[in-house]
Amino acid sequence: MAAQAFTIRLKGVRQVQMRLNDLAARNPRAAQSSVRSEGEIDLTEMKKLTPVDLGNLRITGRVEELLGQIGIRWAFGGTTGKFPIKAGPRTGQVPFVDYAVKVHQELGVFHEVGQAKFIEQVLIESLPNYAERIGRRWAREMGIA
Amino acid sequence: MSASSELAQFLADGGTLGTLAVDIFVDKIPAGQRNALLVAQYQGKRPEHRMDGSNNIRFEFPRVQIVVRNTDDATSFSKAELAVDRLAAIVNQTIGGIFYRSVQLINQPGIMERDKNQDLLVSFDVEVERRRS
Questions:
Q1: CB contact under 8 A, B43 and A124
Q2: Which of A6, A132, B33, B92 is least surrounded, with the fewest CB atoms within 10 Å of its CB?
Q3: Among A8-22, B21-35, B78-92, whose mean pLDDT is lowest?
């Protein structure tokens, strides 16, 4: 069978991007607030899927804002510095979680609570609607919807 | 067959990464095997259904994780990079009798952990676009 090819041309994409960039530039706080608020919703879902055993992985989950640009990232591991140990020989110390990547990536481990890929799984489900969610929230915050 | 089985065989066929069931494994590394490349499938995006009234699945998008463990750290990374090159080159071709539209890298190889033998485990993930068998 002969090879088939087709082309789709979308007109005005650049203009839409410029308009959105302009809106974001003029109202960065509203844009960032919308992105962050939607990110917090997904963080809650990620925490529901985070394996819980003896450590503190789940409470290290957080939304971090990107410096100098509109955007966020979800982070697990390290420390949030908010939850010192309350009892035992390490009382007062802030737990440090250095196994987040291992727990996230290890597919062959059975977890009584949670699962591997606890970040990725949520993003797979939420990303198709992410732009729309942020857009709706942003429009509400801007008072235009 | 699963995408992990097909891609494991595909990696073995390249001739530079190892041999299936000797140092390339599907879904599980046998106990005691320190030099190994694991190909494991997990859930990806929802599949694409046919629009001909049958609602059968036309394309599916499983994700596949590659884990390389080796007693030599540099070899862990170099084998992972070789696997990246081989998998990322897949486009519109038949593997194990199944049509693969593409294999796309989700992340670069990175350190997953150092195991009890101090062997380095390096992993990365790909998203597969594969016609349903």
A1: yes
A2: A6
A3: A8-22
Judging by beta carbons within 10 Å of its beta carbon (0-12, 13-18, 19+), is residue B56 exposed, middle or buried? exposed
Smallest CA–CA distance from A108 into chain B, residue: B28
| Ordered mean pLDDT values, 10 residues apiece, chain A (145 residues) | 71 78 78 93 96 88 89 88 73 83 92 94 90 90 78
Distance, in Å, from the CA atom of B90 to the CA atom of B7, rounded to the nearest integer, reads: 10
Structure tokens at A35: 């992105």
Does the distance separating the beta carbons of B44 and A105 come in below 8 Å? no
Contact assignment for A116 to B112 by CB distance below 8 Å: no
What secondary structure does DSSP assign to chain A, as a single string? ----------SSHHHHHHHHHHHHHH-HHHHHHHHHHHHHHHHHHHHHHS--SSS-TGGG-EEEEPTTSS-EEEE-SB--S-----SSTTTTPPP-B--HHHHHH-TT---SS--SSTTHHHHHHHGGGHHHHHHHHHHHHHT--
Tell me what pLDDT residue A80 has: 65
pTM of the model: 0.81
Is residue B28 within 8 angstroms of chain A, CB to CB? Answer: yes
| Closest-CA distance of chain A to residue B108, Å | 13
β pairing state of B36-49 and B24-26: parallel
> Does the structure show a pLDDT above 80 at B25?
yes
Q: Do B113 and A101 touch (CB under 8 A)?
A: yes
Q: Is B42 on the interface with A (CB under 8 A)?
A: yes
- Do the beta carbons of residue A61 and residue A46 sit within 8 Å? yes
Inter-chain residue contact A107 with B65, CB threshold 8 Å: yes
